[in-house]
Every structure is written in structure tokens, then in C-alpha cells.
Amino acid sequence: QVQLAESGGDLVQPGGSLSLSCAASGFSFEYSKIGWFRQAPGKEREGVGCISASDGTASYVDSVKDRLTISRDNAKSAVNLQMNSLKTEDTAVYCCRYDTNYWGKGTLVTVAS
What is the rounded distance in angstroms from the CA atom of residue 55 to the CA atom of residue 93? Predict the structure, then answer.
């Protein structure tokens, strides 16, 4: 069955960096586009970015595009989200998605001094 498991969430100070990982199984990962989403407290879930299957091209929403980098390791069936210059407004549960129906449980990122 399809499984997605995020890891790497932590408490980090503003301006700091954090790397999240999404480990996938149960589907043909190397042929699959994967998306990253986040849900801040009291807000709706929003897309952060995604990475294609074909050439590993990543795209991002404008609010994060200069600070976040999505990459994939097909050998490990994993997608990484590198976050730099973190802001308090980046505090959220971050989760990955495969297709439109499969979500991980998420990992909490808290940005606070």
C-alpha cells in the first residue's frame, strides 16, 4: 500500500535552516510527482512546491521560492525539502503528497526564538 512518512521537523530559530524528508513506498516512486504542503495553526493547508518525476524539476510558490529547495533521491524513494532563512510564519505541519489522494501524516516545524 502507498505510504508516505515525513521526518525532520524541529524547533528552529528565525533565520535558521532545516531539512525535511519524505520517505515513500508502495508505488512507482521514480515515475511519480511529489508535492510538499504545509498547514499553519489556524490556517488552511497550502502548497509549498513540488518536484517532477521526469527530470526532477522543482517548482515553488512565490512566498518560499528563494528559501526552499526540493530534491529527490529515487534510489532511496525519498524527497527532501531544504528550508533556509526560516521565518516565524513558516511554522506549520509539513506534509508530502503523492497523486491527489495519498498524504503523509506530516512533521511539525516550529520557528521561534
Answer: 27
- Residues whose CB is less than 8 angstroms from the CB of residue 5 and which lie 6 or more positions away in sequence, other chains included: 22, 23, 24, 104, 105
Residue pair 103/4 in contact by the 8 Å Cβ criterion: yes
> Please, what's the b/e burial string for 4-25 (b: 16 or more CB within 10 A of its CB; e: otherwise)?
bbbebbeebeeeeebebbbbbe
Order of all β-strands in the sheet with 78-83? 3-7, 18-25, 78-83, 68-73
Q: 3-class DSSP state for residue 67?
A: coil
Instruction: Report pLDDT digits (tens) over 39-53.
Output: 999 999 999 999 999
88-112 pLDDT, tens digit each: 999 999 999 999 899 999 999 999 9
d(CA 26, CA 37): 20
CB-neighbour burial class of residue 30 (10 A; exposed 0-12, middle 13-18, buried 19+): exposed
Beta-carbon contacts of 104 under 8 Å, excluding residues fewer than 6 positions away, are 4, 5, 6, 22, 95, 96, 97
